[in-house]
């Protein structure tokens, strides 16, 4: 079995030095996030992740979930672990205190969720839904609905789901058909089928609260006719406790390549008279609310990228330190572990560099989220909200693509032992394959980035971000020992600027433009990674100058930044080239050419 | 289930235009390879692959192999398909006529093997071992051994295996411990354990012929003490038929992520007095002979890269033509298949371009192999032998990496349906994950390329190849409609030249040099792909000018070449940059940094 140890030192360094933990802790409503408390939280979470969740990860993979009639049976140990997780209060970590949460900043909960996903992604998907659903209900639910449902969701007593997909409506929610018909007492009866519903059915909690997109009888066509409904598995009795079973059935679970521990359900609503549900927010305005939950999920899936990558890296490093094979190419010695082979070392350093780059971006984004939500200065809050909006598709799209690459590379370090299931690294690779797909594929993220985030505002926020990257390059250039890195970072900024120029100049040619969306996402992700790594190097030098921390560790961070700029950043040029040239060729490529 | 149709048109175009089928058919001993015969062979093979092997692929995946006691039970239908395959004479297609083969050039058998691997890789691994073993025995076995064993191996009546790996000896064969002790009558008794033996045990054939690396009592240490033994599962009786069971036991089969239909065995030799075997070739010279078999296997695994990629591409294309989702971003129409989305089209064209690039390289290499073997002019033969030697690690290493990328991209086209097992594309992705590992990982291929193939001769053959690439660029430049591509191809040649310069200048610093081995392999693969795509475009233009063939098809080949040069070739710069810079950073990175 693979061990997992939360990478506390790396997490803390990035929280403090790149994501501005200290400043976040000074924001209104964030004052609890003192360094001591945060460290204590991370340590406790690390213990829980390593001790309770990680050992269940292979169990979930091997046993999977079973559908028995309409019951979904979870893997052994899942229920006990969930109860422990819930009782320890982990679900409410960053959720509203008025509903029983701890109200800590997203910056603090982000590394904690990274740990849950590293330890056992299939398991952690369950409580993550509670977090997203809380965000959505907090914004759109009535006071009465909040009073009825939110405490139980925040505590995790009841589970949550997100019901969007239907067989004909996957990436395109405009095709949603699920119907909702008003009842006489102001509720609704829902009819239809939803597919790919994570944890759509299970018996880990006494109730499940489904948030469901459906159409009212008078709904306009398309996404502007979608309303949001809260539909519980069990209707509540007069005491507010789960009573009568609602008209929802799990009729199938998917046989998937990975995340076997997480049931992916087909739910049939209303086969027996209609599933009773309650409208959340205004009629026909459901999509915007669902997107609050979806955006939270997207960010979390980005975190899954770094989380699976970290677990894979730890596994590969442990194997490379232990497995003896071949001769040291320099000394000629045999009997040394494979970590001494230059190519194995290259793979591991490359993994570690990308982990730090992803973490830098994700934790920074979490901090921006907190600033956007809590900063008293509207202008500051607004800038950070725009940054979060711009980079959300990058956090999701790029970090999941890189996370897959890392799991792939870990298998390569294991060689033949990576392809056999017993070592556990194959599970990470299989599990990871879903993260570039669910909550919007990389293509969907890239279209969002290009269309809604960049073109709609003529690249304004991206230009602002490029300015920040250039400022970091200026700081590098002024630094005695890091000056040589400035050119490479500036280069990334220039590439981004040129790309924005090109995009704006080709706005009329939609097909050509959108053929470059994914390359653009890779370019921006790679460049943001370079920016974060440059900041990492500057921070490490600063600590070094103040003689704080472990000199070897600080030096290694600087080397990681150098490595990233030398090996990852150059691919941004290729992505930029593809962005500018792929579309034109594609437009000449006819259907007969396939 | 996924359909498979052999891509005959693409195969024929590349055979004729890039790999020089006509010239090969004029070589001594290759005269049977007339265009008519070759087309007939490809058509028949395509039917067999689609009709018999492809439907068994999911069966193999779902049922896998079972170990019952010491028996390995193959999936249902495997035995009947193997008998049909054998009876049709497919195994001997390119094997020596004096042992019952058809003696066709490797150029002809290469697309045929591509088909077998596309249709059912786990199955086709079995007969592929007969081909490799025949090559090895033809070179090293005594006349008596050839007479005893080869006819049955060429016909496929008996199966073949390749026994190298031991628990402590994977990539490093110097650590091999298997012992061989001489008997009084000139045979040997073998003792020890071999692992990861593909088709090490099964009942698909009445006998299995193991080729085994082992050490004689007087063996020097290291790889210079390895001898090669032929060790049959059943000893032959006086009539030459399988008689007494030899002392070999299958004690375990691996639980793998993919190729479930192919049993990966742990074989224990000599637990009951010693497994009787026969020395092949000279004592202590076994590795060179085993490498004949290994090299054949490596090339075949490269072909598996294009084969799995092709199957994945066909699946993704079929899905993209059928699945309706979203609106056409240009016309605004809904109800159109997802192939109209620019990003989906980009993925499919990108897959197709890389398929053609890989095929161009692999089929060209197969043709060079035939020229090396059969050309009457020693100088010509020698040049092509050097090309084959130089590019074998690229054919294996690069094509398997790209093959994995294509299977990954196919899942992305399928979206959520790619992650569920029922569509079959997940199997391709899981199966493909082994090909960058077995028969030498990408890292091993890259070390071979750098150390044995480039540095040992100061880059001489590579410089010659670069000259060929530049010549193609000259032809492009002279062409009215392709002149604009010349710069991009020349650029690849320059990059290669600069990389060779850099390598030669840094020969002293082994660790720095070998840290760049895999980036070098990617660089050379990408550049060779660009070269082949440029040749493809030139050939398509030439046919077009002669008004031969389907104009739309020819035009699409030109677009594929443009697409490759616009999107893949630029990554060669990043690989080159990594080659030159990664090693220096790594040498500063200490053990404490992980």
UniProtKB/TrEMBL annotation, chains A, B:
Q: Which PANTHER family match?
A: ACYL-COA DEHYDROGENASE (PTHR42803), BROAD-SPECIFICITY LINEAR ACYL-COA DEHYDROGENASE FADE5 (PTHR42803:SF1)
Q: Please list the residue ranges annotated as the Acetyl-CoA dehydrogenase-like C-terminal domain.
A: 466-584
Its source organism is Billgrantia antri
Q: Cite a single Pfam family from the UniProt record.
A: Acyl-CoA_dh_N
Q: Which InterPro entries has this protein been placed in? A: Acyl-CoA_dh-like_C_dom (IPR025878), Acyl-CoA_Oxase/DH_mid-dom (IPR006091), Acyl-CoA_Oxase/DH_mid-dom_sf (IPR046373), AcylCo_DH-like_C (IPR036250), AcylCo_DH/oxidase_C (IPR009075), AcylCoA_DH/ox_N (IPR013786), AcylCoA_DH/ox_N_sf (IPR037069), AcylCoA_DH/oxidase_NM_dom_sf (IPR009100)
Provide the alphabetized UniProt keywords. Answer: FAD, Flavoprotein, Oxidoreductase
Domain Acyl-CoA dehydrogenase/oxidase N-terminal per the UniProt entry, residue ranges: 79-157
Please list the residue ranges annotated as the Acyl-CoA dehydrogenase/oxidase C-terminal domain. 285-449
Question: Is Oxidoreductase found in the keyword set?
Answer: yes
What sequence ranges are listed for the domain Acyl-CoA oxidase/dehydrogenase middle? 162-269
Q: Give the protein's cofactors.
A: FAD
In the record, the note on similarity to other proteins reads: Belongs to the acyl-CoA dehydrogenase family.
Q: What is this protein called?
A: Acyl-CoA dehydrogenase
